[in-house]
Amino acid sequence: MLIIYWDERVNKWGYTDSNGKIVVEPIYDYVKEFVNGISLVMRDEKYGYIDEQGREIVRCKYDSAGDFSEGLALVKLDGKWGFIDRTGRVVIECKYDLASAFSDGLARVQRNKKFGFIDKAGREIIECKYNSVRSFKEGLACVERAGKFGYIDKTGRDVIECKYDDASDVSNGFASVKKGDKFGYINKAGREISECRYDVVYKFSEGFAPVKRDGKWGYIDKVGKEVVECKYSIKQIREKLNAYRQERLNDLPTMEDSKSEHTQKINETCDRGRGEEEIERLLAEFKIY
Three-state secondary structure along 70-82? Predict the structure, then answer.
């Protein structure tokens, strides 16, 4: 494994091996960790890619670039975006105003101020006609039309009508949606499992999602039932959900046993005696909005 190092004599970045021996000379203005044997680097304000021997497999010529995703990397040249493969071959020419990395086999692109999706051969699978789109997650992409949000499948078919004021990516089979200033949940078929009545919502994990209403916290399950009523502090909901699990769902782990990320955050911050505001701040990364 190569280790990034900074040479203050030349104010440049390079790489050493685990023994401190220089493998890649410090000639770059920006470097990243290697992923699958390739690293993104920048020299003289241009981006390229090197292998673990320091060879520039893609010379530094791009105005911007990203990591490889699903075998292709997003690159920018002369103000336009396209994609290259791991050998540096241009697979999709730089012709789009905006683009994002491939996800679920498709990449979102913008042309003439409208968004759509292309496949890895560069074919426009879904016409650039939307005001905004998000990447595909679990087979669906959130799209915006005339100020309202809904979901399409990979053929471009409207699966869930554009009728919400905002909407999240699908995660674990569910998405959060917004009506007015309140949030609720829908499933992948578009059925509202929880009406939009919450002020803050989080992703589902292990069958439950933490929600906040009128300054108080609770939990809902995947059928929208408020298994822990919204009347507790964030510290108290851990105890209440554990009590519910032990009473009704003995085969499920308690929150102390849980391996989900946001559950671990609640456990850690509560156990350290931190205040409510700090707990909510630390949990913010798991918030859908």
Answer: CCEEEEEECCEEE
